[in-house]
């Protein structure tokens, strides 16, 4: 059998199918090797050199190493690309099979030089579901679990939840705990279970920050309330919070760029991750608050805040994140000192 480098790249906004593919790949390698030395890292949190060291060093307690690197779109530096290139070349030369590297990104692509290192057959883009697939997917999900759901209830769910299969599975599983399977799920049930008991996330935080129907002060107040709920939840780490906001602002940047050139077709929106009406509405509102330059400033601010938090530890974490939210909402992504300096010049 011809050798295939165990190097994979999974990209795109469909979290659920992407996670399913990752789990299937892990299961396949567990069957092949037995126990895996499994690790998950964020590329913007852990040095790539440390990640590659774990990948290349043998383990006393497992037969293979399986390393997942999320937010891989940030891997762009020459020395980082060289590290991966060296591993690729060494693995091919030695026909290595027991060191598996999986790069994950919620973006549609990563650095071209990085992408070119991955075997063609190991690259997969996970597109968001087409609009006409969403309601059938929901009905099928409820049916497989022994439940029935009204079409209006499906529409309500899609208006409340991120339209990726991971979020839909997680949120819709609540109904199976609250109702007997003889009960037909209605829109009223959805309001009771989801609208009033919705967990906050980086996406609901962005929705509040981008709610153009509210005044600046109200957006700030609502956003800080959501931030507080997130910080009090079981998943209070700043890492997924900032990663989620970065995803939203990068998505907004793409939305603005598409609409600056011409009016995008439905296909243009689909291939760029905007098939969901909820996502379209979110970005349409956000685009009235931040222009292209300001959106890039917000992205830069989020990245800088991530670096600041990693270097300062947890003592000032709350203050740093609150300040970042304030600067994004009231200063359009400018640091407070920079904003004041610009006013003085004017």
Give the secondary structure arrangement, pairings included.
Layout: E1 7-11, H1 15-33, E2 36-42, H2 48-56, E3 64-70, H3 78-94, E4 99-105, H4 112-115, E5 123-125, H5 131-144, E6 148-149, H6 151-160, H7 165-172, H8 174-178, E7 184-185, H9 187-195, H10 202-209, H11 216-232, H12 238-261, H13 266-271, H14 277-286, H15 292-312, H16 317-330, H17 336-345
Parallel strand pairs: 1-4, 1-5, 2-3, 3-4, 6-7
Helix pairs in contact: 1-7, 2-3, 5-6, 6-9, 10-11, 10-12, 11-16, 12-15, 15-16
SSE order, one letter for each helix or strand: EHEHEHEHEHEHHHEHHHHHHHHH
Q: So what's the overall shape?
A: globular
Number of strands: 7
Q: Domain count, please report it.
A: 3
N-end to C-end Cα span: 69 Å
Q: Regarding CATH, which class of the largest domain?
A: Mainly Alpha
Specify the CATH architecture of the largest domain: Up-down Bundle
CATH fold node name of the largest domain:
Zinc Finger, Delta Prime, domain 3
What summary fits the major beta sheet?
5 strands, parallel
Task: Report the uncertain regions.
Answer: none
Largest sheet, spatial ordering of strands: 2-3-4-1-5
Give the amount of beta strand, in percent: 5-15%
**What value does the average pLDDT take?**
88
Rg of Cα set: 22 Å
Structural class: alpha/beta
Secondary structure: helix percent: 55-70%
Helical segment count = 17
């Amino acid at each position: 059998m011809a050798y295939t480098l165990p190097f994979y790249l999974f990209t795109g906004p469909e979290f659920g199918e992407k996670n399913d593919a990752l789990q299937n790949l892990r299961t396949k390698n567990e069957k092949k090797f037995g126990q895996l030395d499994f690790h998950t890292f964020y590329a913007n949190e852990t040095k790539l050199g440390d990640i590659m060291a774990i990948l290349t060093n043998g383990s006393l307690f497992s037969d293979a190493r399986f390393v997942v690197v999320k937010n891989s779109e940030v891997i762009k530096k020459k020395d980082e690309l060289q590290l991966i290139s060296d591993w690729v070349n060494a693995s091919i030369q030695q026909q290595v099979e027991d060191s598996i590297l999986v790069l994950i990104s919620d973006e549609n692509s990563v650095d071209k030089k990085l992408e070119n290192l991955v075997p063609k057959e190991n690259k997969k883009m996970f597109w968001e579901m087409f609009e006409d697939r969403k309601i059938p997917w929901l009905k099928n999900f409820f049916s497989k679990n022994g439940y029935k759901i009204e079409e209006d209830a499906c529409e309500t769910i899609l208006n409340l939840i991120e339209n990726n299969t991971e979020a839909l599975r997680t949120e819709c599983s609540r109904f199976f705990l609250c109702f007997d399977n003889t009960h037909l799920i209605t829109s009223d049930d959805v309001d009771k279970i989801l609208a009033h008991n919705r967990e906050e996330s980086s996406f609901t935080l962005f929705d509040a920050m981008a709610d153009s129907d509210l005044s600046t002060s109200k957006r700030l107040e609502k956003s800080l309330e959501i931030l507080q709920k997130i910080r009090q939840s079981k998943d209070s780490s700043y890492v997924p919070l900032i990663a989620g906001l970065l995803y939203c602002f990068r998505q907004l940047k793409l939305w603005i760029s598409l609409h600056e050139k011409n009016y995008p077709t439905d296909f243009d929106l689909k291939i760029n991750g905007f098939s969901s009406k909820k996502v379209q509405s979110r970005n349409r509102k956000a685009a009235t608050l931040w222009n292209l330059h300001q959106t890039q400033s917000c992205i830069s601010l989020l990245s800088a805040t991530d670096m600041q938090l990693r270097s300062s530890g947890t003592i000032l974490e709350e203050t740093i994140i609150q300040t970042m939210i304030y600067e994004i909402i009231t200063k359009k992504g400018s640091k407070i000192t920079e904003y004041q300096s610009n006013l003085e010049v004017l």
